[in-house]
Design goal:
It is built from nine helices and 16 strands. The protein is an alpha/beta fold. Strand 9, helix 5 and strand 10 form a beta-alpha-beta unit. The structure holds flavin mononucleotide. The site of flavin mononucleotide has 26 residues, from strand 6.
Length: 306
């Protein structure tokens, strides 16, 4: 049993451990901060920000599924300026890396938000081109290589020295095609996966459960899909990867890292267990320790395919 070093590097940003919390599942950290010291985490990826405040979609916008949930929240957030004024100072009280997740209606809007967030001093910008729950931007950019590249280029041009990580959608035929386009456009890192489009129906009313009819599936149900996609992307491009989708414990996080992720994000399971990110961190340390590793990062890409 070794005592592995837990810090990892994600696009030049040092995380004290590989566990980040996923955008949209941790708000701006205020509620979870009542359970434990947020400095325990490697990073906090905040709720998706837009240029203007958004109310999100009408309810119901969450539906449970076996080992997961469907959501159609639709990027409810106070807007990038309110985030910088009120939420970032709160997060800065903690020794934790802050990742700003952004969605724009146009490439220019992505650029403007990057400039504001870089000036405000966030540690990393996660460019969401994969939200299935909004009409503009979102998934439209994430499913077409040339648009994904355009948004990436715009973000890079305006983010200054802050690294840009592009969040990929699983709702495509070949995720490596988008990954390559985004890498060629200068992205510093990739994160994947966002939610998988899904639907539930109430058989008595014959109505979809979600008011938007469809939503995005997340939680432990999606882990094998996410691990497969991280593995494919890791084999296709040389960028660091933040792996997410169903990570719920040390084992699932280790699978994600063996498939090629440098760090992992924990999302949906936080709703059922606010302490999940801490459990994932400790579980990862145990697995790396049992395998006699000096450094948890030695797991990254270590899968031995048949
Ligand atoms: C309620 C909810 C809201 C989300 N909001 C965002 C968002 O604002 N921006 C984003 O990039 N991803 C968002 N996501 C996707 C997650 O960050 C993550 O990619 C996905 O849920 C897979 O991880 P998980 O299975 O651990 O939840 C959201 C997911 C959920 C469940």
């Amino acid at each position: 049993m070794s005592n592995p070093v837990m810090s990892v590097d994600l696009a030049g940003v040092e995380l004290k451990n590989p566990v980040v919390v996923a955008s949209g599942t941790f708000g701006f950290g205020r509620e979870y901060g009542q359970f434990y010291d947020l400095s325990e985490l490697g990073g906090i990826c905040v709720k998706g920000l837009t240029a203007q405040r958004r109310e999100g979609n009408p309810p119901p916008r969450i539906a449970e599924t076996p080992m997961g949930i469907l959501n159609s929240v639709g990027l409810q957030n106070p807007g990038v300026d309110a985030f910088i004024a009120h939420e970032l100072p709160f997060l800065r009280q903690y020794d934790v890396k802050v990742i700003a997740n952004i969605s724009g209606n146009t490439p220019e809007e992505y650029g403007e938000m990057c400039e504001k967030l870089a000036d405000a001093g966030v540690d990393l910008i996660e460019v969401n081109i994969s939200c299935p729950n909004v009409k503009a931007g979102g998934l439209a950019y994430g499913t077409r290589p040339e648009l994904a590249a355009e948004v990436t280029g715009m973000a890079k041009a305006h983010a200054g020295r802050v690294p840009v990580m592009v969040k990929l959608s699983p709702n495509v035929t070949d995720i490596t095609e988008i990954a390559r386009a985004v890498a060629d456009a200068g992205a510093d890192a990739l994160s994947l996966i966002n939610t998988l489009r899904g639907m539930r129906i109430d058989v008595n009313t014959r109505r979809p459960i979600l008011k938007m009819n469809t939503g995005g599936l997340s939680g432990p149900a999606v882990l094998p899909v996410a691990v497969r996609m991280v593995w494919e992307v890791h084999n296709a491009v040389s960028l660091p990867i933040l792996g997410m989708g169903g990570v719920s414990d040390g084992d699932s996080a280790a699978q994600m890292m063996l498939a090629g992720a440098s760090a992992v994000a924990v999302g949906t399971v936080c709703f059922a267990d606010p302490y999940a990110p801490i459990r994932v961190r400790d579980g990862l340390r145990d697995i790396a320790g049992r395998q006699g590793l000096d450094h948890v990062s030695q797991l990254t890409g270590g899968v031995r395919p048949w």
